[in-house]
Write a structure and sequence with these properties.
By secondary structure, this protein is of the alpha/beta class. It contains six helices and seven strands, in the order αβββαβααβββαα. Strand 6 and strand 7 form a beta hairpin. The longest helix has 19 residues. The protein starts with a helix and ends with a helix.
Length: 190
């Protein structure tokens, strides 16, 4: 039992480390930004890091519709945003530069531009169980300066305890995508 104090100290250090990691959060918000001044936003195409070629478009569409449904901001139609991307000849609209954000803002007459990346989308397996998972990060740029004023990420779905125990298939991917959208919008309006 000579190792008991070492084990206890190791256990305590592990818990402190886990608590410190959990408090870091998955959200950034510029404390000096007046979010009430944002009336119209443009949502750029989302980068897609998944095997599903339509994942970026699907998550962008769900997030955009949910943001518009809040009534807090006007979301420009995707066609207008696509025409502006072509007109400005943006090489990588999924990761705009400061200059590109300000140009988009003046051309589209929006207060903010949103970009995003989809990291996971679709089915994951754990043993004999499978379920859908969606993971996305979204960034909000102020168009007057091109500065990032808010950023958040969310992951929902996956194989849970009950899925492992009873072999459930988890929620449909669209429901999981809506959960990610809800989580991101809640983080935006916090």
């Amino acid at each position: 039992m000579k190792n008991s104090p070492i084990r206890a100290l190791s256990f305590a250090a592990t818990w402190i480390g886990l608590l410190a990691c959990s408090s870091a959060g998955t959200r950034y918000q510029d404390a000096t930004m007046d979010f009430g001044s944002i009336k119209a936003v443009a949502i750029l195409p989302f980068a897609n890091l998944t095997q599903n070629s339509a994942a970026g478009e699907r998550v962008r569409d769900v997030f955009g519709n949910m943001l518009l449904a809040t009534g807090a901001v006007y979301v420009l139609p995707q066609g207008e945003v696509a025409r502006a991307i072509v007109r400005l000849n943006l090489a990588t609209p999924t990761t705009p530069s400061v200059e590109e954000v300000t140009k988009l803002g003046s051309l589209l007459k929006v207060d903010a531009v949103i970009s995003g990346v989809v990291k996971e989308y679709g089915e994951v397996r754990s043993g004999s169980s499978s379920a859908n998972v969606v993971s996305a990060s979204v960034t909000l740029y102020e168009t007057a300066t091109g500065k990032i004023v808010w950023s958040a990420s969310s992951t929902r779905g996956g194989v849970g305890f009950w899925d492992r125990m009873f072999g459930g298939g988890g929620a449909p991917v669209n429901n999981v995508t809506e959960q990610v959208g809800d989580d991101l919008i809640n983080k935006l309006f916090k």
